[in-house]
Amino acid sequence: MTEQYKIFEENLTGTAQGNPYTDIWLKAAFKNDSETVEVNGFYCGDGNYRVRFMPAEPGTWTAVTRSNDPMLNGRRLVCECTPASEGNHGRVLRKDEVYPQSACTEEDRFHFSYEDGSRFQPFGTTCYAWINQPGDIQEQTLETLKSSCFNKVRMCIFPKFYTYNTADPEFYAFEGNEAEGFDHTRFNPVFWDNLEKRIRQLDELGIEADLILLHPYDKWGFAKMDRETDVFYLKYAVDRLCHFKNVWWALANEFDLLPWKSVEDWELYARTVMCRDSYGHLRSIHNCVKLYDHTRPWITHVSIQRIDVYKTAEAVSEWRQEYQKPVVVDECAYEGNINFGWGNITGEEMTRRFWEGCIRGGYLSHGEVYVQHEQIWWSHGGKLHGTCPERIAFLKGIMEDVPEGAAPLKLTPENHEANWDVPCLCREEDHSYYLYYFGFFQPAFRTYELPEGCSYEIELIDTWDMTVEKLPGTYAGSVRIELPQKQYMAVRMRKVC
Amino acid sequence: MTEQYKIFEENLTGTAQGNPYTDIWLKAAFKNDSETVEVNGFYCGDGNYRVRFMPAEPGTWTAVTRSNDPMLNGRRLVCECTPASEGNHGRVLRKDEVYPQSACTEEDRFHFSYEDGSRFQPFGTTCYAWINQPGDIQEQTLETLKSSCFNKVRMCIFPKFYTYNTADPEFYAFEGNEAEGFDHTRFNPVFWDNLEKRIRQLDELGIEADLILLHPYDKWGFAKMDRETDVFYLKYAVDRLCHFKNVWWALANEFDLLPWKSVEDWELYARTVMCRDSYGHLRSIHNCVKLYDHTRPWITHVSIQRIDVYKTAEAVSEWRQEYQKPVVVDECAYEGNINFGWGNITGEEMTRRFWEGCIRGGYLSHGEVYVQHEQIWWSHGGKLHGTCPERIAFLKGIMEDVPEGAAPLKLTPENHEANWDVPCLCREEDHSYYLYYFGFFQPAFRTYELPEGCSYEIELIDTWDMTVEKLPGTYAGSVRIELPQKQYMAVRMRKVC
């Protein structure tokens, strides 16, 4: 029995002659009463082949395999699917893909949803090379994630070669090694088995695996494979991994630092991923300095590295306007003390960027680079040492509590004077909810003209000290709220009648 | 005897009949051996007229008055001018106006100079309505300024009506009062005498008076005078005040909040000021949300209010590039705890903005709005309570020590990777000086590739604690500097051989 949104898997035995990775194809079309899902099986060494399928509906799904290897052809597969158990919500998609258009508001295009309709608000973190660390460190990373609030991890498939990251991994995606060279036509099953184990473990923790398929930080040649090899690799990766409900595809980290790959290459790679992914997982492509054209229809959401050193999460408003898609600021700099400007902001500033971006209707990813530790989270995983993760957890709680349909306050000539300085997330249509964030401002008070005929409970939120203080009574009309003259405060108003 | 750059003044008696403000004109052309300076005299009530002249060269200057009042016509005036005494450097102008073109570098267009060639780096503050407060407060403001580092004050001629500013002043520029109306054809000599006294007192403190000629915060009608009245007022103001060497003309504060005045109006007002000002004092026009076209030739320097809430002094680089003039960020928000976002940043953030702007080759003005005090500095003057003024004084000392010719490091493809994150003020041509400012970054160390063949002394500057720590020895080649992992640090390098 296979649980809905989990993986049905059938192991088959076929030829081990020649190079099955290049020579053998294997397909199956899973059908229930109303739908057909075509999947690609894949070779995993020693004459072993595997067909996987993620059923999105309970019931019986059947398939008959097709292959150019007679041993793999014509095999009948039956997947008996049981309804999803509690906590299993399926893939994360764009909210406007999950809900029918008639049920979608203008705001929904900027947000995500699990495919069962549950809300998903990404609070990501970054551990680029965690699966390429020693096994005990990988286990430690999982332990850390387990007790953190993060629900998305940005992670590479290929190992990383960069400052503080010079060790060779134990296993590579391809057969071979650095000294003797890699065989780009044969994959290393040990590597892929471990990667899948880690993706599965993340899923058990409710964490999305934002898989970075290509990246520039390389000394092994994986960043400079030719177009055919890239496509060959992408097909294999997607054939194997697309069945995990918690997978997102990041075509690249910092695509613009791979200048030998053209826009035509990336577009081909995007088509390849889409064509081989039976389930339409989320797709993005991340930048260093130059943004990819994020209006391209295959890009489901903006995965952005802030370009400006100063204006980071604040630009969420502009990016939403420009791209009309969910905006995930996957790099807004990291908390830490590294020598580079991308990795030495304070926990306060990181927390501020998270709040600022969330209030503006975007999402952010965390990262941490404290150089004094043997493992640096942003790349190795290991342990967290910073001050912002618990504040991000606090923010996540506040955001989970934001009513559906809330949107950043639209500035108009009429409301500009009262709102130009402080962003606000609110439900304007019924005036039921307002969440103002003051960032680095330290006002002694603030005045509000509350909507006519409405009465509110008001809370002061100290986003750094992580306290919520309900002010006595209820409020209506012209209101003056005393504030503690310190940075990082928020005010929440909820309509009571 | 009149000291060079100070005011020669001759009082004359003429008619008191009719309205001398509108009816009588009085001119004099002061000549020495090589030059003629035409000035306008002005009426100051009770049949008293005054001719003023600021000699820019020692020696004998003579003039014969001309007037449509026979009593004022044909009077011979002699100004015996002695050389400037110590500390008297004359007007502040653009550096490329003071130095011959052949002696100017590309950078000089972004800076100021006294007319005697001494350096002037503006560190301004804002006391909009200080001359419209009770006399004892005006005295207190001067006392405060005396012990501060500020060398420019932004101040209005007309009183200010705005939140926290609702009191009527004792005297107005025009005759009349609010109840009975103002006579826009007659000026009140008591007001102008006091204004001049205050400008003179500022000059004695070495402070430039950045005079705001028009502004929107008004209940008395001065913001809504018609074009002819504006011109009449501007002529009188300039005729009286242009002889003070420490005067700058700010045509408006927030010109865009006076939408009933057209671009044609402002251009006319600019021509009027230029035509009546015998000495070519600095001229600017300040914005709220929309910038005036700062490429206009009459604008000597950019007097800007930051538009973006987040990116403020950092934009100096862009504004320099765009306007090719000195950039003075006259409003980058103020230290304080007011309810409005323009006046509730911390002293730390204000200090950071000052450093950031200075390192980028611009200048900033300070302001302070702590609501718990009876006088709020930004408008009333009085006392300073904030934490940034002493840090600005510290910065001023650091900036005075920057060698002539230093300029912001130009980012190139070659130096980008090492410098994208941290701005640097330096002398690139002889590699003699580098001043790096880390702002909100908190690196544990930084590495530098020092220019070949040069050896440096290196100092750590804590811009908040106001300390300068010289590191032992000298440095050459590849260098790693340990840093204290805190915000607001700077590194200064000076070539020793």
Automatic annotation (TrEMBL), chains A, B:
Residues 109-380 form the Apiosidase-like catalytic domain. Residues 420-494 form the DUF5605 domain. Residues 2-67 form the DUF5060 domain. InterPro entries: Apiosidase-like_cat_dom, DUF5060, DUF5605, GH, Ig-like_fold. Pfam families: Apiosidase, DUF5060, DUF5605. This is DUF5060 domain-containing protein. It comes from Schaedlerella arabinosiphila.
